[in-house]
Amino acid sequence: METNLADVTIYIALVVSTLRMATPLILAGLGGVFSERSGVVNIALEGIMLIAAFMGMLVSHFTRAPWLGVLAAVASGIAVAALHGVLCIKYKSNQVVSGTAINLFSVSFTGFMLRKVFEHAGQSPPVPKVADWTIPFIEKIPVIGAMIGKHTPFVYLSLLAVVISHFVLFKTRLGLRIRAVGEHPKAAETVGVDVFAIRYLCVLLSGALAGLAGASLSLGFLSQFRENMTGGRGFIALAAMIFGKWTPYGTLKACLLFGFADALQILSQTLGLTFIPTDFLLMAPYILTMAALAGIIGRSVPPAASGIPYERQQ
Amino acid sequence: MANTDEELRNPSKPPFRISREQAIELVIPVVAVLLALLIGALLILFIGKSPLVAYGALLKGAFGSKRDIAEMLINVTPLIFTGLSVAFSFKCGLFNIGAEGQFIMGQIVAAWIGFSLTGLPTVIHMPLAFLSGVLAGALWAALPGYLKAKLGVHEVINTIMMNYIALYFSHYLVMGVLKEPGPIPQTPPVQAAARLWRILPGTRLHFGLILALGAVWLIYYLLFKTTLGYEIRAVGINPHAARYGGINVSKDIVIAMSISGALAGAAGAVQALGVQFRFLDLFGFVGYGFDGIAVALLGRNHPFGVLIAATLFGTLARGAITMQSIAKIPKQIIGIIQATIVIIVAADEVLRRFLKSRGAATQALVEAGEVEGDGN
Amino acid sequence: MQRRLAFLERGFLTLQKSMKAPIVEMRAITVKFPGVVANDNVSIDVYPGEILALLGENGAGKTTLMNVLYGLYRPDEGEILIRGESASISNPNDAIQLGIGMVHQHFMLIPPFTVAENIVLGIEPVNAGGKLDINKAIHDVEELSNQYGLIVDPKAKVENISVGMQQRVEILKALYRGAEVLILDEPTAVLTPQEVDELSAIMRGLVSQGKSIIFITHKLREVIAVSDRVTVLRQGKCVGTGETKNTTAEELAQMMVGRKVVLSLEKEPAQPGDTVLKVDDLHARGSRNLPALKGVSFDVKAGEIVGIAGIEGNGQSELVECLTGLRKATSGHIYVNGIDVLNNQPRTLIEQGVAHIPEDRQNRGLILDFTVAENFILRNYYRPPFAKGINLDYRKVHAYARELISEFDVRTPSENVLVRSLSGGNQQKVVVARELSGEPKLLIASQPTRGLDVGAIEFVHRRLLAQRDQGKAILLVSLELEEIMSLSDRILVIYEGQIVGEMTADKATEGELGFLMAGGRTKRGLLTEGSEESGQYRRRTQEPLKTSFSHIS
Questions:
Q1: Which residue segment(s) compose the domain that A110 sits in?
Q2: What is the DSSP letter of B199?
Q3: Of A282, B269, C235, C534, which sees the most CB atoms within 10 A?
Q4: Which value does ipTM take for this structure?
């Protein structure tokens, strides 16, 4: 197939595709940022997204109100995260084990419920999805309008969430306390910060954000639930969080980069990029993250107390 | 403490105290399984079916006939390997969450050696193909082990990353250089000389089971009867004391990760050489690696415990198919039961508190003794 | 000039003291831990505008008492009055509310945060929109910093500033919360001499503005130089309190060290043989990357016990770690039987015949979840007769374990019991048995009786002497002066990473050693006269000591 690289539609498709791919990653990645910044490793993001995608679809199916579905997705994300929080914070379970268990649970649970409710395996029937938003004025601008003027609300919400998360983490009293708890919980406790309360709050918040990410899959980009539709996005989000050095803007950049790699892979035929195996583009996020952790490309250092259960004195 | 001497002159006391601890250790997995089965039963009731019928169908599916038993054991085989893999890493204080990726690498490399070499006798080709898969798994795990030992990068994140790299890399290979001509994304079939022997006439049960049982014994022997096992357990329990004892902690971390990866690679190799006879393109993770985590946790990271836990999970997995077809109960119920078991085992602190509350008085004594022993 | 004014003011306040009411009174405080009475009927009081030194050896109960005042421990008995009113302090927040601030020995600072962020954490200023008002925080910190002369850079990250500045941040943290009474726990332990000077000026500045300071220390010189009054604790009890100017270093040393029950050990005079260990100009850094050993040189001969006396944190741990391969030295030489083993791996040293009873038996000396038998072979499991090829011969291991259990009288039901379940004394017997059974040439025993009961102490002591009599070279590092004195043939005193004195045990006195250990080496007149003439006592030549507090005293 001949490709004209001067054809502007290719670039539009690339930007649109990048944003689509990046959106669930950004939301889940921000969830990871909050959780880990407070000191709780959350590899359950994948499972939380999956359950939320299912619950969102389910509520939208029965109420025919997709935004209620989004609400349900967020609520279910919070509920699953609460389980992770209780296990990790109260009972000091191994955080990776707890996350793994939730991931295992989510695949079976959603598959089970799919059969129970729709007596159908593989995928749900189509359900109402949330309507796209158009941004006034911007949509009228040539090229730019086509790139960013009209998207599912989740795209804009994810970008908004980045800005808010950055503000909360770095410009507010709460953010200062969250970061303190993730770095040196004992020091935070000696000045009267409630370590457990902050950690619960952050884990629940990460559940809400991962829930929103799940909703973006089943009610934003698609209008149905498919078995295992997260397809490892929770783990890419985790990678993006690390690559972005546990900051919202860093995570955004990493998600856009990873989303771009994904978009290139999808459009590689059109772009004439067949000389790069698409699988290598898919691998790129993981290889880059490992390189970042090893210090080959700007060392990523996690919050000091991340993964360590906190024991109160006495 | 004044009472310690007196306490120790009465030698009947300490063994009782320890046996209570050990009893709790053994009781936790049993309670976890029973509780999870109970939750499963409630879910079955929730969809309006009878748990008795369901579990009956499950048992029938796993033990109903010679063929059922053989199929069940075919399910058990890779779980033994991946369970051992994760358990072995735990024994060295590492968390190999990458058994899934090592499984894939073992599977594709075993298939590659299995189909590409021709004219070799079985006694050479079969072990060669199997061991290539083992080696591939070992190398895939050695890298995160090395990064942990030399740079202190946590192995959990790196092994997760390498799961996905393995997934896409295998896809690249099976769509490219290793692809069988034709429309289906798969490798050519493994040569007859590289296939694992069938060990039960009339069934698909293969020699991999014997290899897995051998691995249980080998890992038990390695951990508890050799100097290397001694070192690895020492590093796993207390790396500071291990270093004081002259043990090269970094080296042992790399070795332990490699052995762990080798076991996961072996799981992939037996699937390639004993069940599928080729590598079929994966559209996602098969799950043996992740199930290995559950098996290891339930088996308390002991090789024999792993054997029991793998048998249980294999039984559930095989029985679930019959349960779905006969009793019309979604097979995912088994996944829910498995995940519930892991959650309960992970939350063993809850159970522990419950089980210990009765012996609270003696427990307080033990803890007081420990506080005294801290010396600071 | 300012300092002089502050000094005059202090004199004035001292005069006023009799009329003023104490700001803090702790009455008859008793704190019990399992098996130990950490504070036994201790009373102290603190007046506004004074520095009270809380002096005592490690384990005397100083920090426990202050943790009670700061709400970290609840006392079993006793009462606390703040400004004359009975106070219930159940957590640090209560203490902060009452105007009590504490600077912990291990700083409670968050390294990637800025100075200002660390100071305001927990009571952050916010503006109308709920946004963290970091400019106000910086401004407040600057103001506070100017008011008390505590120079910090509010925008610098804590991980990039000096330890001295970190300490000032901790003090500012307390002042920002309105502290009237400041507890400083061993504040000089981590400081360089220059930083100690700065700290003393800061402390004087604070009391001149009406604050009160409780200053936990075991360094006599600092007590004399900086405090107004001093309370001495020993083994959980208050042994004296009074005006600093009415006391002397010798008196304080005597009170602090006291006369403990001396275990009578019958020992023959040592028969020193060839030099087994020779340490030459050893330098090493400690955990905070500050120099911990600054040119240590000494030797240990076969058939003698050389004791290293000193107060915790003067380089003993680092010295032992260097000698056993667990820490890299920066320069110098370590010869074992004439072979330079500097920075060799632990195993190489084990094979050179260096045995090591580590100070932290639970974290380093033992693998608590291994059996007694498995712990016995921790340092030689890889060699015959235990190792046979790749195998570990457990029959031999068990037979060997049973032998050691009976030889060393380890009280355990069997060799298959986890070490975790043994008492502290029996755990230590396992370590001692393991280290002595390997026929070492050199034994390094670091606090070998820490936390043990009397019977176990005696056991360990007798074993060490028996080893000496068999011609082994023994280096004994202990914080227990009495242990050093009753076991050693020669005694070295370590202070701030240097050997500051050496003497034979029969010529050493507690007062003299305690004085050297506390850094009191400037007043030569205090040293036992005649010892120098007899040649048993010698002082090492070194640069004149920078006495940190000299400008005040």
A1: 24-239
A2: -
A3: B269
A4: 0.86
